[in-house]
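Notes continue from the previous slide.

Worked example: a multi-chain complex. Inputs as given:
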Amino acid sequence: LEAKFDDSTIFKKIIDSFKDSVTQINFVCSESGIEAQAIDDSRVLLVTVSIPPSCFESYRCDRPTTIGVYLASLAKLLKSANTNSSLTLYVADKPDELLLLFEEPKNQKSMEYKLKLVDITADMLEVDSDMKSDVTVEMSSVEFTKTVRDLTQLSDSFTVSVTKDGIVFSVQGDTAQGKVLLQPREDLADESNNLSISMSKTIDLSFASKYLLDIIKAASISNKIFLKFSDDTPALFEFKMEKGGGVGFYLAPKYDD
Amino acid sequence: KGNQKRLDGFFKVK
């Protein structure tokens, strides 16, 4: 594998977006890019990552390769990333380490790190990325982040309901309750503020607040978030990158039996 | 709101 990002912060943002949700991950590299999936220890939150060749300045993968890493270690190395430096990932044919080369030609500087790869045996779940859903919402990731931060302070359960009037996020704590209603809007001046809802039926789902606080760490990937909900199934929270690919989170709901 | 579901109940293991 030899894959070069023209801006090293792209890879840093991707890794930082889920490094607190899961501890380790297998990156599966092939001609069609880098894909990964990891589930958290409680088996409630699943992270999916897709980095297609379009995200790279140059991308070459001669043989399919799996790269297992501890995310805490990789995140340490990526602290060196900045917008002036490129980052090339190298993995040899017989992979036992990942080489990261940061280059800042303007400053005549380069940095090289090596990370020992780990053998991760994790089962993969069969998720259908084209999963049909009753409700799809596209909204500002900044707005979503603020709403999650504000409401999750009040309760460890977070409810989302969608009707034709809009999307309602609500919490019911022991001492306080809160509710945020967002209606579809079109902001011609700033398209990232748009909110659109497409739905075939209403939904009302609850999730554990702590996972939502993990998910919003990925908001730096995109100024938009796509939400997909169906009754009594995991929700998908997806951040798509400008150049293709992105990071998605499948979150299992809470409900009464 | 009751029980936390796990993803295994929804997705098959590959």
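Summary box: The mean pLDDT of chain A is 95. Residues 141-152 of chain A form the longest helix (12 residues).
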